[in-house]
Amino acid sequence: MSVPVVAILLPSRYSNSVLKEDDVLRPRIAFIGTGGTIASIGSDPFDLLDYNASGARVDAREILERTGLQDAVADIVPVDFRQIDSTAISLTDWADLADLCCELASDSTLAGIVVGHGTASLEETAWLLSLILDLQVPVVVTGSMRPLTGISSDAGANLAAAVRVAATRTGGGVFVVMNDEVHCPRAVTKSHTLRLNAFQSPWQGPIGTVDGPTVTFARLEPHRPALLFPRDLLRRLPRVDITYSYVGADGCAIRAFAEGGAKGIVSAGFGPGLGSPAETAALADAVSAGIIVVQSSRTGAGQVVDSARHQSLGIIAGNDLSPQKARILLALCLARGDSPRSIESVFQSA
């Protein structure tokens, strides 16, 4: 049952906050800068496409200075991580970022954590963190579709909304905030290369909204402790690859991944979650060789069919997870040493 929850800026329980002119105690929020579009500097205000050409990015403190958010909506503590494009995020970066979040959360004066992230892999990082972190404060991942210096940039608005969610959300959890919407990491995806409303949760919609200082949760996503994984697994994730179905696919990529040392393969299949006949044969060979195969779909939404054919071959149905998110979950299961039957159970309950 959906439970409407409305949180209004600002809670007064943060004793270490700074008293402002309006006599409101403002919560302390850590802002981790990792680079990405939200930190990028274009050649001019109309440079909205190839702004990465210059390679110019600013740190967390300068983002706050340029947006004017410091002390406007919270007492924000800038924390620099790395200035990278999110297409370059590595498994080591993920592990280090998770460690940093845990370190920050140990500070009892912090009410929440905001992570500024490039949008290319934002959904994957948020999903990964939601499977690893079990903190008492919220972690909110945000970014921007236009560079910090671009005309009508959404950098400031998205960061302000993310800080407000982190400031008003009680308890833990990982959230994605973009375009004044709050999304669950499991469902959200980047659905357009350029539009400001690119981040959507297909067939589910956002779980909350941000309207000025008011944060409203239309529904609460259930916390799934059974899906939490030990953080140290991030230091030893195995190779898991994704193969994409198309007319005439002959399974060559699947065989190459197997020969390349993949411990798991996710198949982004046609509509209901099916590959071509040649792909299915190659996947069956991979299973026989001890590789765990999970079937997903290239459609981007909807539960895949757990077909009798796949069951007989040992191919695991990936529920309704996107291929990129199924890959992360499979890698964590493999790093934990789960059996095929246990992995199947994890995906059924994901």
Across the major sheet, the strand order is 1-11-10-7-6-5-4-2-3
Separation, N- and C-terminal Cα atoms: 19 Å
Overall residue-averaged pLDDT value: 90
Low-confidence stretches: 1-23
Task: Name the helicity range.
Answer: 25-40%
Protein model, in words:
With 350 residues, the chain is α/β, with parallel strands linked by helices. Helix content is 28%, strand content 21%. The protein is built from 9 helices and 15 strands. It has helices at residues 60-67, 91-105, 122-132, 155-168, 252-259, 277-288, 308-313, 323-336, 340-349; strands at 5-8, 28-35, 75-84, 110-116, 139-142, 174-178, 181-183, 189-190, 199-200, 208-211, 214-217, 240-244, 264-269, 292-297, 316-317. The strands form 3 sheets. The chain has a 9-stranded mixed beta sheet with strand order 1-11-10-7-6-5-4-2-3, with helices on both faces. It has a 4-stranded parallel beta sheet with strand order 12-13-14-15, with helices on both faces. Strand 14 (292-297), helix 7 (308-313) and strand 15 (316-317) form a beta-alpha-beta unit. Helix 3 packs parallel to helix 8 (323-336), helix 5 runs parallel beside helix 6 and helix 8 packs across helix 9.
Topology overview:
Layout: E1 5-8, E2 28-35, H1 60-67, E3 75-84, H2 91-105, E4 110-116, H3 122-132, E5 139-142, H4 155-168, E6 174-178, E7 181-183, E8 189-190, E9 199-200, E10 208-211, E11 214-217, E12 240-244, H5 252-259, E13 264-269, H6 277-288, E14 292-297, H7 308-313, E15 316-317, H8 323-336, H9 340-349
Parallel strand pairs: 2-3, 2-4, 4-5, 5-6, 12-13, 13-14, 14-15
Antiparallel strand pairs: 1-11, 6-7, 7-10, 8-9, 10-11
Helix pairs in contact: 3-8, 5-6, 8-9
